Amino acid sequence: MQKLSIKDIISKISNEETFEAVSSDYSFTIKIDKYVPYACAAIHDGHQFRKELWDNCIHTEYERWYEEDPETKNMVKSHPIVIAGCDSRFEYDLNRAPKDAVFDTAWGKQLWHEPISEKMKDKSLKKHTNFYKMVHTLIAVLESKFGFCTVYDMHSYNWKRWDRDVPTWNLGTLNIDNKRFGDAIEGWRQSLFEIKFPNAIKSTSKINDTFQGNGYFLKYITNNFKNTLVLATEIAKVYCNEQDYIIYPEVLYAIETQLNKRLPEHAMQTYHSFK
């Protein structure tokens, strides 16, 4: 893996080079082993939190981890194109518009002892801007090269905080064209439903049950590119104990190995339907 400036990353994508890199500010990673009509994203995978913000942050390290999407990059690491955030959403949230990306409060609790300065905000928002410069270039190249592409926008959620039965997998489709992409959406939902978990974990999958797909990442791509389908895919945190801060490697392995087969099958079927 190389460390590259945003300018060099954009240049390599524009020239359709294969590479693996971390941005020079260590805010995101990108891997392109091969140019294919689909990409995987784990924008909330990151847990880094700038040290200069530590003393001013009210939330604990565990509270930050609890609201992040740990291990979502590892679920899709084997695919040809993978982008992932390195920084915690508590510094800036890649799934929110720039004006809302730096929190004042987070999940009902004040985030900072003292309001952070505009200089601190700008430092974070520059990383947000660079990430979307990379995303825009990548999707533009994939659409131009293939005519159509699918982005699997991977997230996770804390299922134990709900006071009702919730699905293992949830697809948020409120902000995409359900009439045009209905078959692709249902095909992905069905494929996720068929995933087998160890430890007697059941697999259920629903559309717009716990979340509706209101994230900025999905909206940005959908609003800027007419032939890219973004599938906001949420897994309940059955792969960890969200209350005791324990990851279950055997569950992660089951997810990653089955997505390794199911995700490209769905992506290529969708591609051939819309190219």
Automatic annotation (TrEMBL):
InterPro entries assigned: N-FG_amidohydro
Pfam families, sorted = FGase
The name on file for this protein is N-formylglutamate amidohydrolase
Species annotation = Gelatiniphilus marinus
